[in-house]
């Protein structure tokens, strides 16, 4: 797993690298001090995963997330935030970020979040989710539920996506192959008009997709 770290504070970046490379499946291949540097690196190198700060000079994490998801939609992005960054985190998720964590998270949680995002999960730090989710859903009462018809299987998969489950976890829960889950997700995204998995998870919560 080729990881790009985007963080303007060198000491924080070095600390994150040490933590992530405790996992033998993770390689911090490149580092950047801002979003613009990150985009330049992505133009030249194959990157699987970006771990990115929100507040940075030149180009912040939200702007960079928007550009990266438009140019390289397959790249997973995990936003690092603080309690004061919840508004930024909301916008980052709307731009397609695959999740966010607090910088104070334990090492094991940080590594687990990387794997979860890579496997298709939506990672939300529980201490910040309570502040962020209401903002993501604040317009749900104003927006009528769209006339979208999902099959029972598609409803079940959408519900699990809304719970932050990975493709592997969804496959296990529904006794399907991972490939079948991916195929269903492609159709669900087309039907609901959602751009990516993060948007589908928000859609599931907004529209109270349940059993």
Features:
single chain; 6 strands
Description:
The chain contains ten helices and six strands, in the order βαβαβαβαβαβααααα. It has 211 residues and is an alpha/beta fold. A six-stranded parallel beta sheet has the order 2-1-3-4-5-6, with helices on both faces. Helix 1 links the parallel strand 1 (2-6) and strand 2. The longest helix is centred in the C-terminal third of the chain and has 15 residues, at 178-192. The protein is globular. It starts with a strand and ends in a 5-residue tail after the last helix. The model is unreliable at 140-144 (pLDDT under 50).
Q: Which secondary structure elements does this structure contain, and how are they paired or packed?
A:
Elements: E1 2-6, H1 10-20, E2 27-32, H2 35-44, E3 49-53, H3 61-71, E4 76-81, H4 86-94, E5 99-102, H5 107-118, E6 123-124, H6 126-137, H7 152-162, H8 167-174, H9 178-192, H10 197-206
Parallel strand pairs: 1-2, 1-3, 3-4, 4-5, 5-6
Mean pLDDT: 86
Overall radius of gyration: 17 Å
> In order across it, which strands form the biggest sheet?
2-1-3-4-5-6
Structural class: alpha/beta
Give a quick precis of the structure:
The protein has 211 residues and is of the alpha/beta class. It has 10 helices and 6 strands; from the N terminus they run βαβαβαβαβαβααααα.
